[in-house]
């Protein structure tokens, strides 16, 4: 006989928020005891999650436990009439903690510290700066030489760097901002906002081949002080980590980066319990879509998932999160990173341990959910946990379920379109261009997909766009390839395909984007995930729609062959690559709309869901909405959960909640 799970109170970590207006005013008030004090804060603002060791949020459960308040701070803390009443992190320059600059073995403090930091940044130097959730690498964003040094040291030759701007007026000088985007920039979350660039010089330095610049405004007292003392108005502020590694948040981790960059470090004495990355958002027709859900978000979601037992789900290997369901309440972690490096794996394992312990969950009574991919780190880890039941959930179905969960439409039948780079399919093949009909409660039926192409070289096809192109047009007329004059590794990929060496079928729209980018001249290796697709969107943004290509929905598959045939003919006729790229986006959007309209009519529903990283492409999404204008069909979306793999753990939990019956 199964023992019912014990009902217990679920706790939550409080989100880290930006400095409030009252504290900001006080920061620059010479009469205040916290004048120019970087750690200024109050009950309404500042870090929480990054500093918490346990719940509830009380000083003894944070990294401030060993810092004793001075009599003045103690009086504020205990006085119900004071705005710092029960401010658990309350402190001031007298009782500490504080900041200091460590440069060439010397320690510099106070106003001299800030002046020296500004001097170094204006001279083109790089600094390590401790913020609320970890260290950032910082340099002058307009100093091409300084940014290039950062790229070389980090192995990031072309990936965009986020920048911090002094204020909203500075932001408006370099990007186009709507009222909604201004509101987001100044919100308590203070995310990195991806906004359309209007400064080509800056774009070429920090975000090459990209329509957007990722920017944020100050969210800590320290950051405001940097600009106050004369730091450049635009500074690169990127997480201090090598690709794939977690952000450095402990002071004893600094040595390697300081040696590599030969740089100084602005060090805060307040310890950080866990690293928390900056949230990344972009405003599209789907709303303010989070690309990375992290700093500023509440871990306790405003949804309920019924389950007689607790559920723990571990997401996917990229953009990983975990989700815990207990007493119908849902707790979703912040962004944990990509499980490609040992350090990130340790961070993931610790997060699982923390969540189980803090919420009083007994693993032996817990249902464990994970991705269907047998080689994922998260899958293997989940299978080692001693839960009461282990269940694999298909990747793309989890994508759909996450959105339906946050919209509280678990029983609603929808048409679901999930486009991404790769996910393990139920047939053992690599999916990524999937079309579903169904609901979370009744299940999703795969009703169609992108026509299968060849994934030549396996995972390597995601690195080499020309290799991806060979997988899509390798069966075309061989004379055509000579006319296209495609460089290596295209001909080498064809030989691999002919010999059927590590060549697998795939329905990936992510690889479709890579292939089209390669056809139109992107012959570089992808130096980061999605680089070719971002470059293709950038190319397309330079033209209006002049051509639309044939991309038919057969009722079972989206057939890309006519699409490529017509794009190739346009290319051979010397049509502008930007016009072809724009036509590709419109053609894909039309194909998506054809599928949605056909299946919504067939299955008597007016709801459709778009999910997967491909739909981060704002041009594609805008075209879909334009083509659906006047239709009764409603696209379901939410601005709390990302379209990419950050959402997988939530979707897994929703499916398990709806389908597991004891």
Description of the molecule:
This protein is of the alpha/beta class and 662 residues long. The radius of gyration is 26 Å and the shape is globular. Helix 12 (395-406) crosses helix 21 (648-659). 33% of the residues lie in helices and 19% in strands. The protein has 21 helices and 25 strands. The longest helix is centred in the C-terminal third of the chain and has 26 residues, at 577-602. It has 4 domains: 17-96, DHBP synthase; 99-268, DHBP synthase, CATH 3.90.870.10; 298-407 and 643-659, Nucleotidyltransferase, domain 5 (2-Layer Sandwich), CATH 3.30.420; 453-636, Nucleotidyltransferase, domain 5 (2-Layer Sandwich), CATH 3.30.420. A hairpin with a 3-residue loop joins strand 19 (430-439) and strand 20. Strands 2-1-9-3-4-8-5-7-6-10-11 form an 11-stranded mixed beta sheet, with helices on both faces. A 6-stranded mixed beta sheet has the order 12-15-14-13-16-17, sandwiched between helices. The chain has a 6-stranded mixed beta sheet with strand order 23-20-19-18-24-25, with helices on both faces. Residues 1-9 have low confidence and may be disordered.
């Amino acid at each position: 006989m199964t023992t019912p799970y014990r009902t217990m109170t679920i706790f939550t970590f409080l989100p880290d928020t930006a400095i409030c207006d009252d504290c900001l005013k006080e920061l620059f008030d010479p009469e205040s005891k916290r004048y120019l004090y970087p750690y200024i804060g109050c009950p309404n603002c500042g870090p929480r999650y990054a500093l918490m060791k346990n719940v509830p949020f009380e000083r003894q459960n944070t990294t401030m436990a060993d810092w004793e308040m001075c009599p003045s701070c103690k009086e504020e803390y205990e006085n119900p009439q004071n705005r710092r009443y029960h401010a658990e992190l309350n402190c001031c320059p007298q009782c500490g903690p504080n900041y200091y600059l460590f440069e060439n073995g010397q320690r510099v403090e106070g106003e001299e510290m800030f002046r020296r930091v500004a001097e170094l940044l204006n001279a083109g130097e790089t600094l390590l700066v401790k913020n609320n959730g970890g260290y950032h690498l910082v340099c002058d964003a307009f100093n091409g030489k300084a940014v290039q040094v950062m790229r070389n040291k980090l192995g990031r030759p072309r990936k965009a760097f986020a920048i911090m701007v002094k204020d909203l007026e500075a932001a408006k000088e370099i990007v186009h901002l709507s009222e909604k985007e201004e509101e987001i920039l100044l919100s308590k979350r203070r995310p990195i906002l991806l906004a359309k660039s209007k400064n080509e010089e800056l774009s070429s330095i920090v975000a090459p081949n990209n329509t957007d610049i990722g920017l944020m405004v100050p969210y800590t007292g320290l950051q405001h002080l940097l600009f106050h003392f004369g730091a450049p108005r635009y500074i690169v502020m990127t997480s201090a980590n090598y690709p794939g590694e977690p952000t450095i948040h402990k002071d004893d981790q600094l040595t390697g980066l300081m040696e590599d960059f030969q740089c100084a470090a602005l060090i805060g004495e307040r310890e950080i319990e866990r690293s928390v990355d900056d949230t990344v958002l972009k405003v599209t027709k789907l709303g303010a879509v989070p690309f990375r859900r992290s700093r500023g978000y509440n871990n306790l979601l405003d949804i309920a998932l019924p389950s007689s037992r607790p559920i723990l789900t571990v997401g996917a290997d990229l953009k990983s999160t975990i989700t815990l369901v207990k007493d119908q309440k849902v707790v979703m972690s912040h962004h944990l990173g990509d499980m490609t490096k040992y350090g990130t794996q340790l961070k993931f394992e610790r997060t699982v341990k923390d969540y189980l312990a803090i919420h009083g969950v007994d693993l032996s009574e817990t249902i464990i959910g994970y991705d269907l991919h047998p080689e994922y780190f998260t899958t293997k880890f989940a299978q080692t946990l001693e839960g009461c039941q282990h269940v694999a959930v298909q990747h793309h179905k989890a994508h759909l379920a996450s959105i339906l969960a946050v919209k509280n439409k678990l029983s609603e039948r929808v048409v679901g379109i999930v486009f991404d780079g790769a996910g393990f399919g139920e047939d053992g093949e690599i999916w990524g261009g999937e079309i579903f009909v169904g609901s979370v409660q009744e299940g999703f039926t795969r009703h169609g997909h992108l026509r299968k192409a060849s994934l030549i070289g396996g995972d390597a096809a995601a690195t080499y766009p020309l290799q991806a192109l060979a997988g899509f047009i390798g069966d075309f007329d061989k004379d055509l390839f000579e006319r296209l004059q495609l460089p290596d590794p295209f001909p080498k990929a064809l030989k691999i395909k002919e010999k059927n060496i590590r060549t697998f079928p795939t329905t990936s729209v992510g690889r479709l984007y890579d292939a089209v980018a390669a056809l139109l001249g992107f012959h570089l290796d992808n130096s980061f995930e999605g680089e070719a697709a971002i470059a293709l969107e950038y190319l397309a943004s330079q033209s209006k729609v002049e051509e639309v290509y044939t991309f038919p929905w057969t009722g079972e598959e989206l057939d890309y062959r006519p699409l490529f045939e017509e794009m190739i003919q346009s290319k051979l006729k010397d049509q502008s690559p930007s016009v072809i790229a724009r036509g590709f986006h419109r053609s894909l959007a039309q194909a998506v709309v054809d599928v949605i309209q056909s299946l919504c009519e067939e299955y008597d529903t007016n709801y459709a869901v778009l999910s997967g990283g491909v739909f981060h492409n704002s041009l594609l999404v805008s075209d879909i909405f334009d083509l659906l204008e006047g239709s009764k069909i409603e696209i379901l979306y939410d601005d709390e959960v990302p379209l990419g793999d950050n959402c997988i753990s939530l979707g897994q939990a929703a499916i398990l909640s709806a389908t597991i019956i004891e």
